[in-house]
Specification:
By secondary structure, the chain is of the alpha/beta class. The strands form 4 sheets. The chain has a 7-stranded mixed beta sheet, sandwiched between helices. It has a 3-stranded antiparallel beta sheet with strand order 9-14-13. The protein starts with 14 loop residues before the first helix and ends with a helix.
Length: 399
């Protein structure tokens, strides 16, 4: 068989995908698995977005779309940036893509040369590092410790920047920790970046509407002097429960957006026309559901944090946003589960928890910080209550 590309040797399958697949396999055996692995809203897509897609299809809006996105959706995104973020982007400074992941990949492919460093605060979403590698960049990590609320310390950021640094990727509210920056904290990060004009800044704002303590801010809004080298990334997936529609978008300086569109034209071209119609309806329609759903997520967060606090050996920071908690399992290391599994790492913990209590989580190793597990509370309250009770039982049985 002919050889595969060498670039794949360091690219791993997402740990959340692996754990989710194992959970589904156990469920297929008839076991009552509760999966807390997926960062996907359990709410339905808004009915008016579905109706808009249906009407677009009936009207014949089923042809090849513009690579950079339809005019209607770009205008809706322009209004969204103005409404929610106080950011003004011209239409040729906006790009529509197949989810936020493609926006990020477009940007890295359009800018990175071999050896360019992509600075990633850790813990981090699992795909950032591998996407940087695929773009011939070198992922470089900045530790964001729990004692600082999993937030990026300005002094650590400043120390990590080198002449090879091409990008800084920010993701607050954060996946996997749920950490969110205050305006003062974001301004402190901005002050550092003003000292390094050679570095692009990417801000992944997918969870902007899921902030429970304080309010959301994005770096180009907080510090307008950085706007000409900031790529503001967002999408419809989390806010509007439209993960499967695959709609991501970004605002940024025209030369960067043009280069990204050129890259996207060779990779996928434009995204589904009916998905774009649905996204227009979501962005321009009633926004009440966002706050209503955020309130439900907040209740779930409080439930999960309070129940995990009662699990021996776990220490759970209370996150300010997103729909994840990232408890430390340090107090469980060196012990043995009731089923005889020795717990030496967070991977051991996650696997034993799944096999013995049928609760699927993701090990912190995958996100660049151990010993932790990531728990998604984007599922119904009763399932969360039962899952947390099983986690408590698993921890109590460790010896």
């Amino acid at each position: 068989m002919p050889a595969l590309a060498g670039r794949l040797k360091d690219i791993a399958v997402s740990a959340s995908v692996v754990m989710g697949s194992r959970a589904r396999a156990l469920a297929a055996e008839g076991k009552k698995v509760i999966s807390l692995t997926t960062g996907e809203p359990d709410f339905p897509t808004p009915p008016h977005a579905i109706e808009a897609a249906y009407q677009a299809a009936l009207a014949g809006d089923t042809k090849y779309p513009p690579t950079e996105g339809t005019a209607a959706l770009k205008k809706a995104v322009q209004k969204k940036f103005q409404r929610d973020n106080k950011l003004d982007y011209a239409l040729d400074e906006i790009l529509i893509a197949n989810g936020g992941k493609q926006i990020i990949m477009d940007a890295l492919l359009a800018t990175c040369d071999p050896g360019d460093e992509v600075l990633i605060p850790a813990p981090y979403w699992v795909s950032y590092a591998d996407m940087a590698k695929l773009a011939t960049g070198t992922p470089t990590f900045v530790n964001c410790p729990q004692n600082n609320g999993f937030k990026l310390r300005p002094e650590d950021l400043d120390a990590a920047i080198t002449p090879k640094t091409k990008w800084l990727i920010l993701n607050f509210p954060n996946n996997p920790t749920g950490a969110a920056c205050t305006r003062a904290e974001m301004q402190a990060i901005a002050e550092v970046m003003l000292k390094h004009p050679q570095v692009w800044i990417m801000t992944d704002d997918m969870y902007e509407h899921l902030v429970y303590d304080g309010s959301f801010c994005t770096i180009a809004e907080v510090e307008p002097r950085l706007k000409d080298r900031v790529l503001t990334v967002n999408g419809a997936s989390k806010s509007y429960a439209m993960t499967g529609w695959r709609v991501g978008f970004a605002g940024g300086p025209k030369p960067l957006i043009k280069a990204m569109a050129n890259m996207q034209g060779q990779l996928t071209s434009g995204i589904s026309t009916v998905s774009q119609a649905a996204a227009v309806a979501a962005l321009e329609g009633p926004q009440d559901l966002i706050a209503e759903r955020a309130a439900i997520y907040r209740e779930r967060r409080d439930l999960v944090v309070s129940m995990l606090a009662e699990a021996p050996g776990l220490s759970c920071h209370k996150p300010e946003g997103a729909f994840y908690v990232y408890p430390s399992i340090a107090g469980c290391l060196g012990k043995t589960s009731k089923g005889g599994k020795r717990i030496e790492t967070d991977t051991d913990f996650a696997l034993a928890l799944l096999e013995e209590k049928l609760v699927a989580t993701v090990q912190g190793t995958a996100y660049g910080m151990s010993p932790y597990i990531r728990i998604s509370y984007a599922t119904d309250t009763e399932s969360l209550r039962e899952a947390c009770a099983r986690i408590q039982e698993f921890c109590r049985e460790l010896a």
